[in-house]
Amino acid sequence: MNSVKRIATSLRIEKSRIVNWLFLFVFFPFAVFAQAPAIKHVIVIGVDGMSPDGIQKAKTPILDSILKVAAYSWKCEAVLPTSSSPNWASMIMGAGPDKHGVTSNAWQPHKQTIELECEGTKGNGKPSGMWPTVFGELRRQKPDTKIACFNDWLAFNRLFEKGVVNRQRDAILLQAASHHGYKGITRMASNYFKWKKPDFMFVHLDHVDHAGHHDGHGTQAYYDAVSVADEMIGRIINAVKASGELEHTVILITADHGGIGHGHGGDTPEERFVPWILTGTGVVNGELQVPVKTYDTAATLAYLLGIKAPDCWVGRPVIAAIAQ
Ligand SMILES: [Zn+2]
Ligand SMILES: [Zn+2]
């Protein structure tokens, strides 16, 4: 009797061990996989003319708290010339002006001055006549995706393929009345995110560049404008929180160029280096120790959005920012 009991006891132990092993090797990986939040939304908040110095010296409580958990670089390199169009273009086109041909603010899609190695696709599936952007590639590779663009600066519209976004709004009317287009843009972007939960949303704010031109970079008025940008970033993040999607969202905060004196366009470090701050699902924390170029942004966005970067893109995803 005693020996049977011993065997039974021993069998029970064995059985429980087997269950444990089964759980560890069969069920546990699925349990972990199921719990890891997936990226469903990618948001870019591009603040025209916002320099690393601007963020470091201005009162920016929102960005300060983001930096505690973000992967960031203060030395993301803009392209030359440090003008708006060449840099916004490079950011979304994954290459520099020598490739995409957007060499100045005078650029227009129907006035290409260089032979393009590759071409994007419009919303109707026809060739765009311009270098492919992350907007157009996302539409082409994932036709059902929801894409939105809210740009304070009207001319941003011409930098991506026609008909590829579900919602586009700019602040031209708001700006005609005042220089407070950023408020309307922030409100429209926040409301749209809560309403439609787009897969990819690009938000462009222009007021910091206005302050740089009007009052000068490094002035109190400039830093005050950066503080306002900080507040706008907070409003957009609050909208993402309210939508219940924060744990599935990655947000990139960056700029097209910095500035010196009352402008930009030259090759000084103050104009060339821009902040690049990535935060959200699966993003590691700390200052990036790898070089980051503004045209790496498109490749990084493609990586996060789960699409293939076109072979002609020069930029590479900033893998160091993302947990593997
Ligand atoms: Zn600009
Ligand atoms: Zn400017």
Written account of the structure:
The chain folds into 2 domains: 1-36; 39-321, Alkaline Phosphatase, subunit A (3-Layer(aba) Sandwich). The model is unreliable at 1-34 (pLDDT under 50). It is globular and about 50 Å long. It contains 12 helices and 8 strands. It has helices at residues 2-35, 52-57, 61-67, 84-93, 97-100, 134-141, 172-177, 181-196, 207-214, 220-242, 269-272, 296-305, and strands at 41-47, 71-77, 147-151, 167-170, 200-205, 249-254, 273-280, 286-287. It has an 8-stranded mixed sheet, with helices on both faces. Bound molecules: zinc ion (2 copies).
Secondary structure topology:
Elements: H1 2-35, E1 41-47, H2 52-57, H3 61-67, E2 71-77, H4 84-93, H5 97-100, H6 134-141, E3 147-151, E4 167-170, H7 172-177, H8 181-196, E5 200-205, H9 207-214, H10 220-242, E6 249-254, H11 269-272, E7 273-280, E8 286-287, H12 296-305
Parallel strand pairs: 1-5, 1-6, 2-8, 3-4, 3-5
Antiparallel strand pairs: 2-7, 6-7
Helix pairs in contact: 8-10, 9-10
The chain binds zinc ion (2 copies).
One zinc ion (ZN) is lined by residues 49, 84, 209, 213, 264.
